[in-house]
Amino acid sequence: MIGSANLNIMIKAARKAGKSLVKDFREVENLQVSVKGAGDFVSKADIAAEKILKEELLGARPTYGWMAEESDEIPGQDPTRRWIVDPLDGTTNFLHGLPHWAVSIALEHKGKIVAGVIFDAAKDEMYFAEKGTGAWMNETRIRVSGRHRMIESIFATGLPFAGRSDLPATLQDLARILPACAGVRRWGSAALDMAYVASGRYEGFWERRLNAWDLAAGIILVQEAGGLVQGLDPEGNIVETGEVICANEPIFENFAKVIRG
Fold first, then answer.
1. Any binding-site annotation on 53?
2. Total domain count for the chain?
3. What distance in Å separates the CA atoms of residue 72 and residue 225, rounded to the nearest whole number?
4. pLDDT of 212-222, one tens digit each?
């Protein structure tokens, strides 16, 4: 798969940041960690990875805007294009030695996500998609699951922690969805949850209160893999609201109906 110049820049940057993270992950017990908020940690590894991504992406496209988890937003000279970056999605997993975390990079053009890369460096799985060219994992074209029945389907979500206000709504979601499906998974990385929907490992995913960098790359991946992506409010802008439902097309309507209550 030969992508555009921008996609190749994104893949190269993700690999470079992923290599740095893997090195730190091997020494995770020795990392110096500071507390950023209840249940939300930031490490030297996270900040170092973002520095690499910033140098690679803005070095190659200095006029683009920049939005990322660990640094201030930068408006670009080109107001139509913006990098949306999460250097380490799944930070808590990383800091606990769990090999389920990813580098996530999206390119936004005129308010739409047009390219996305999610790199699971611990497993060497590079997910990427670009508008109109399909979705891929390494050298393999990926598609959403072909399952048609909710009762045979596995879904993913995030569970609120540390007293977050969306816990009651999520518990209500689970009360509705668990009796109707084959299981719900909570693996701690929204980016990989969406990559797994794109590759058919999950039938669907939903979550509230995400940040733009958590889900931006996943939007284009699921869409290019043949899936559907909406907000919990169907008219809402997913990147702005941070609320998302995605699934394969046969499941989507019933799944969304259950989650939306």
1. no
2. 2
3. 32
4. 999 999 999 99
